Amino acid sequence: MTDEAKPRNQSSSLRRALAVLDHVRDHADARGISLTRIADDLGISKSTVLRLTQPLIDGDLLTRDRDTGWYRLGHGALRLGQAYLSTLDMRAVAADPLRRLQHVVGETCHLVVYEAPDVVYIDKVENEHNVRMASRVGMRMPAYRTAVGKAILAWLGEDDFQLVVAAGMPPRTERTITDPARLAAELERVRLSGYAVDDRENEPEVRCVAAPIFDHTDRAVGALSVSGLTSRMTPARVREVGPMVARTGLEISRVLGSSRPRRRRNDEGNQP
Question: What residues does the IclR-ED domain cover (predicted)?
Answer without folding.
Answer: 76-258
